[in-house]
């Protein structure tokens, strides 16, 4: 099995869809990579990964995945090849998420003290452990 792990920021608010009776939460994660170019100058590149969390029942996970939220995701990667609007071929990384953790709280709630029921802790999400 191939597994990918990423720590990065959610690029835009997550969306939830229902596909063939299953719910999928979709979002993207950006990770910045720094390296030295041929000329010796530091280059920074942003790598975007499209993420999907599949499950049999609906949850409010998508409400917590807001733009700018720092997350850790791991799962099974897949590469997709597509043709952009100008006719050029592009490649993208898709990740079927198996584990997700919030590295930082939601931006708008960072200044508020946490008041949560431990059973409803949104800082860790394991899609495999959802009730049937």
Characterize the structure shown.
With 132 residues, the protein is mainly β. It has a single domain (4-129), classed as OB fold (Dihydrolipoamide Acetyltransferase, E2P). 3% of the residues lie in helices and 54% in strands. The protein is built from 1 helix and 7 strands, in the order ββββαβββ. The chain has one helix at 61-64, and strands spanning 4-10, 15-19, 22-36, 42-55, 70-83, 89-102, 124-125. Strands 1-3-4-6-5 form a 5-stranded mixed barrel. Strand 5 and strand 6 form a beta hairpin. The longest helix is centred in the middle third of the chain and has 4 residues, at 61-64. Residues 108-125 have low confidence and may be disordered.
Q: Summarize the amount of helix as a percent range.
A: under 10%
Biggest sheet, spatial arrangement of strands:
1-3-4-6-5
Distance between the termini: 26 Å
Radius of gyration: 17 Å
CATH class category label: Mainly Beta
User: What is the succession of H and E elements?
Assistant: EEEEHEEE
CATH homologous superfamily annotation: Nucleic acid-binding proteins
Global morphology: globular
Instruction: Specify the CATH architecture.
Output: Beta Barrel
Major pleated sheet: 5 strands, mixed, barrel
How many DSSP helices? 1
Beta content comes to over 45%
Low-pLDDT runs: 108-125
Report the mean per-residue pLDDT as an integer: 81
Q: What is the count of β-strands?
A: 7
Q: Classify the secondary structure makeup into a structural class.
A: mainly beta
